[in-house]
Write a structure and sequence with these properties.
The structure holds two protein chains of two kinds.
Chain A (H helix, E strand, L loop, with lengths): L5 H19 L4 H25 L8 E9 L4 E7 L1 H20 L7 H20 L3 H12 L1 H9 L9 H10 L4 H29 L7 H6 L4 H19 L7 H8 L2 H26 L1 H28 L3 H22 L2 H32 L15 H14 L6 H14 L7 H24 L17 H18 L2 H16 L5
Helix pairs in contact in A: 1-2, 1-4, 2-3, 2-4, 3-4, 3-12, 3-15, 3-19, 3-20, 4-5, 4-6, 4-12, 5-8, 6-8, 8-10, 8-11, 10-12, 10-13, 11-12, 11-14, 12-13, 12-14, 12-15, 13-14, 13-18, 14-15, 14-17, 14-18, 15-16, 15-17, 15-19, 15-20, 16-18, 16-19, 17-19
Chain B lengths: L9 H19 L16 H19 L7 E3 L4 E3 L1 H21 L5 H5 L1 H20 L3 H19 L8 H30 L7 H7 L2 H18 L7 H8 L2 H7 L2 H14 L11 H19 L5 H21 L3 H32 L10 H4 L1 H15 L5 H15 L3 H26 L13 H19 L2 H13 L2
Antiparallel strand pairs in B: 1-2
Helix pairs in contact in B: 1-2, 1-5, 2-3, 2-5, 3-5, 3-11, 3-12, 3-15, 3-20, 5-6, 6-7, 7-9, 7-10, 9-12, 10-14, 11-15, 13-14, 13-19, 14-15, 14-18, 14-19, 15-17, 15-18, 15-20, 15-21, 17-19, 17-20, 18-19, 18-20
The chains are: A mainly alpha, B mainly alpha.
Chain lengths: ~500, ~475
Amino acid sequence: MTGLPILSIMTWAPFVAALVIMFAARHRPLLVRWVSLAGATVSLIASLWIYWAYDYDLAGFQFHEEIVLVPSLGISYLLAVDGISVLMSVLTSIIIFAGVFASWTVKERSQEFYALLLILTTGVYGVFVSLDLFVFFLFYEIAVLPMYLLIGIWGSSGEVLPQGIFGWAMGRTGVGTKEYAAMKLTLYLLFGSAFILVGILALYVAGGSQSFSFLTFEAMQIAPALQTWVFLAFYVGFGILAGIWPLHTWSPDGHASAPTAVSMLHAGVLMKLGAYGVVRLGIGLLPDAAVEWAWLVGTIACINIVYGALSAMAQKDLKYVIAYSSVSHMGVVMLGAATLTVNGLNGSVFQMFAHGIMTGLFFALVGLVYEKAHSREIFKMGGFATMMPGIAIAFTIGGLSSLGLPATAGFVAEFLTFLGTWSSDYRWWLFPAVIGAFLTAIYVMRVTKQIFWGPKSNDPRFQLLPDAQGTEWAALGILVFVLILFGLVPGLAIGPIDTATGPLLLRLTGQ
Amino acid sequence: MTFSPGMPLVVEVALFALAVIVLLAGIIRPTPRGYADADAPSAPAGTTVGWVTLVGLLAIFGLTFLATEGESLLRGAFVQDGLAIFAKRLFLGSAALSVLGSLTIRHDAFTRRASEYHFALVVSVLGMSVLASARELILLFVAFELMSIPLFLLTGFLKRDAVAPEAAMKFFLVGTASSAVIVYGMSFVYGVAGSTSMDAIPAAMAGGHPLMMLGMALLLAGLGFKIAAFPFHMWAPDTYEAANTPFVAWLSVAPKAAGFVAIIRLFLEGVGDAALVWIPAISVLAGMTIVTGNFMAIPQQNIKRMLAYSGVAHIGYMLVGLAALSSSGVGMMLFYLVAYVFGNMGAFLVVEAVAQSEQSNDIDAYRGLHHRSPLLALAMLIFLLSLGGIPFVAGFWAKLYVFWAAIERGLYGLVFLGAVLTVVALYYYLQVARQMYIEKSQHPNPVPIPTPLAAAIVACLIGVVGMGVYPGPWVAMAMRIADTLF
């Protein structure tokens, strides 16, 4: 490979930008934004370069970088990417690039906001590219912890107040406030990371490994009994981040309360970290257990799809609709993985990408609508398309991708997943999956119609609203473009994915 | 036998000399009785005594680096091995930090009775120091008492205060009761082993005589009081709340470290596989301590009480390392002790800074601290994250390593419980972070921090971050000490 540590550059560029912001750009809001943009741009270029330079014929892990950290324990800073991580890095780059634009208007303590956001981004990149499980875990923690402050300080409390028993609970516990959401999200995810840590340590100690390298673990013969419960630990640990039912409840609260860029990054990328962890560590390292537990993973994924969609239908707060739709779509990701077929797994990873872009777009749009109209209440808004046609069109395209319309990325992902499901051992999974797609159509169309295309609201607040402006267009333009591009030319993503999922499935027994 | 500064007992003699000097300073230069003005322009004599103590402790701390390892005195009753030297450094270092933090207390009693305060503190350190070297049951017990009695005095130091005497009395009753239990246990051990030397314990334990087991169980219970493990933890919150904070910072770490040294000496040193029968008992103790400490900490409104309960939980985590009863387990536990010293003392010292300014130990007093004193808030956040076990600060490695040791022993359930409960712990640590960073303060003026206190906080910060970023040498040191015990 080249002498340039391209993966490290991609991973640490946001971190360097964060340091520059903290120390060099104090009280200069515009400079803060430009430095952030520079950091995000460096990462974007690096990730596109990796995407371009990755040798798809060779496949496997490429761009190795290694620095030994603790030789006695076999911990080293070991980075490399395969097809899946390449795509995930590109996704992260796109989202953070758009996210910097989307949060251009953050006023309060913007310097710290951008610094935390960029540190979070470094954690996300680190998880996708590190091959050493220990370093992987450290990056994972970096990706989780800044969320507490990001939501707690810059978040917003729920607008539609809970009623009945929930109203009482809110009075008692602060359900629905940003502080509650921040604490809930952080504790859930750290709870998950406790499972992951125990799983990794158990593999290392009980498996008798001398190193934390993924490749060492992959080459090891791990006893089936150990695999069985370590897989469960990984599934629960990463599954919490991926929003598996019934451990998903942090996600609607957290995403609805978080500021725009954080929602974009978290729902768009961080939830994928969970699914990525299940695929990479669960299926990749523990093939026997993956076969053994496929029924559980797939069944829960089906519940996710239907439950998430039904919950989204019931919401009155626009941001909660999007947040619950994430829960539903993450079900598709997990379902694809559970099929343990090439098509299903390709669909799963494709859905990670497609949903990442799509949900990033949605949260950016919700943020814009809120900024203009100062409302998230679906049934008070109406007929916005006349005033903000750009936002309306972008929202509709996102919605169509969400329900899986051909020519959008969402279609390819769902189609592949359904195809994989049909050829898996559990065909009946297809029925809840298709019902979920149908329900998605209902809630997406209903919301789009009500807010944008339906009759105009009489509320005096909503009579003169501007469309997106300036930098806001940049965020929307990039995301819509990518969404359609990957829908029309799915090979752009399937190419890299295929190089990684094939070998992964070869390791499974009976494939 | 020629004298060398590395001989055993040199540290103890030096501590004794320091104690005498501090006491004499109080007698020879008495401060005006009664109405000493706290803000008098000339530095009050109390501060001078404090500085003398500090310099003395630091000098003795330096002396420990001359100590030659492996020598013993009094026919093996007083040893100077790696564990003893490690423990002495920990006691002396933490005491120095505590004295540094208390130099600027402007309370009348501290300026007037400074030599009493520092005398008691130094004597207690002397007791700990002897205890760390004791390889004989009676010496161990005497050292324990020498350590404990000054602690009772120091807890009730503010004797006109409403709560201090009560807390001191509670601490005293619990402490003497536990001492009685220890002595009672020792009597059985002596009866079976036929000797008060600890060299006789391994053989007696291997014999598995029921009375020996009873004796050791009583010893474990008595030491459980000292380290505030469940169900013997009740004295801690009240004591911490009532006593002055820099002293509590030290009280929360040093006597517990001493208790652990005693447990290691009694249950592990040279015992070998006969010790393994204690794994279930210590595991249960560890699990219950973690659960109780963490859950009791949640509803606390007073930060000192919260830290007291969280300290109980930390004792539980150290017991997890101990429960492995392996050399790696003990090594990891020693590492945990050091991480805990820095993290916990640091947090208490920040509490002192805030309390001096706000006259309050409520968690509400931290409201908006980030806006008022960003660096102090950041320091507190780092200490809390370290206590919570977050990567890149010392506490993460500490927890990781004790879990690791326990997994090597196959204690998956215990590790799992501990790992899950770290999340509970983060809940109450983050509550403080929320007050500091998310809530708005009522008044914007920064919290004044006296220079010595700031220096002590910075020292803890260096320790926490240094151990977090580069744990290697500390681990190597802890493992080397642990290996010599087996």
